[in-house]
Design brief:
Pfam families: PMP22_Claudin. This protein has a five-stranded antiparallel sheet. Strand 1 and strand 2 form a beta hairpin. Helix content is 67%, strand content 7%. By secondary structure, it is of the alpha+beta class. The longest helix is centred in the last third of the chain and has 38 residues. Helix 2 packs antiparallel against helix 5 and helix 4 runs antiparallel to helix 5. The chain is built from five helices and five strands; from the N terminus they run H-H-E-E-E-E-H-H-E-H. It has a single domain, classed as Butyryl-CoA Dehydrogenase, subunit A, domain 3 (Up-down Bundle).
C-alpha cells in the first residue's frame, strides 16, 4: 500500500493522531538528548546545563551523568527512557496501522498504540515531576536554578502524545458505535 492510499483510506482523526505522535516523537528526542532540563544561572559555575545524561558548561566541557548513584536521578532517567520508548512504539504502531496492508485498520494495533502513547506520556510526566521536585535539593546553589527548554519539551511531548492517544481512542469509539449500528440494522425483526 502506498502512503497516499494509506492516508486516503484513513479517517481524519487517525491522520491527525499520526501527526500528533510524529510531533511528540520529535519533542521526545530533543528532550531526551539535550542538556537543558535545568541551568545553574551564575558565573561561578559557568551557566551549567543539566540534561538526563550530561552536565555541560557553556565552554563546552561536559561530565557524564549516566551511571549516577543518585537514586532519584536514575528514576528520572528510567522514566525518560520508558517515556521515549512509549511514544516511539505508539508512532510505529500507527505507521503500521496506516501503511502496512497486513495490519491495515487492525483495531488491536490501534488499541496498542493508544496504550503506548498514554504510557509514554505518563512516564515523561513522571520524569518531569521527579526532576522538578528533587533537582533543587541536588545542586548546591538551588537559588540560581532555572528549569530549561528540555524540561518544557518533555512536558510538551507528554501532552502531545496523550492528545494523539486520545484521538486514537475517539477513532476506536467511533468505529465501535458504527459497528454496533450496522449490526442493529442487519438483525432481522
Amino acid at each position: 500500500m502506498s502512503i497516499r492510499e494509506g492516508f486516503k483510506n484513513s479517517s481524519v482523526v487517525v491522520i491527525i493522531a499520526f501527526i500528533d505522535l510524529l510531533i511528540a516523537n520529535g519533542l521526545s528526542m530533543f528532550a531526551f538528548s539535550t542538556t537543558s532540563w535545568a541551568y545553574i544561572n551564575n558565573k561561578v559555575v559557568n551557566y551549567q546545563g543539566y540534561g538526563l545524561w550530561r552536565i555541560c558548561a557553556t565552554t563546552g566541557s561536559c561530565s557524564l551523568l549516566d551511571g549516577t548513584r543518585s537514586e532519584w536521578y536514575m528514576k528520572v532517567q528510567a522514566s525518560g527512557i520508558f517515556g521515549m520508548l512509549g511514544i516511539n512504539i505508539a508512532l510505529l504502531l500507527v505507521i503500521f496501522y496506516l501503511f502496512v496492508e497486513w495490519w491495515e485498520k487492525d483495531i488491536e494495533l490501534e488499541v496498542a498504540a493508544i496504550l503506548c502513547s498514554f504510557v509514554g506520556a505518563g512516564c515523561y510526566l513522571l520524569a518531569v515531576s521527579i526532576y522538578k521536585e528533587e533537582m533543587p535539593n541536588w545542586v548546591a546553589v538551588s537559588t540560581d536554578l532555572e528549569f530549561g527548554n528540555s524540561l518544557t519539551m518533555a512536558k510538551s511531548a507528554a501532552c502531545v502524545s496523550a492528545g494523539g492517544g486520545g484521538l486514537l481512542l475517539v477513532d476506536v469509539i467511533v468505529q465501535a458505535v458504527k459497528g454496533s449500528l450496522i449490526k442493529r440494522r442487519s438483525v432481522p425483526n
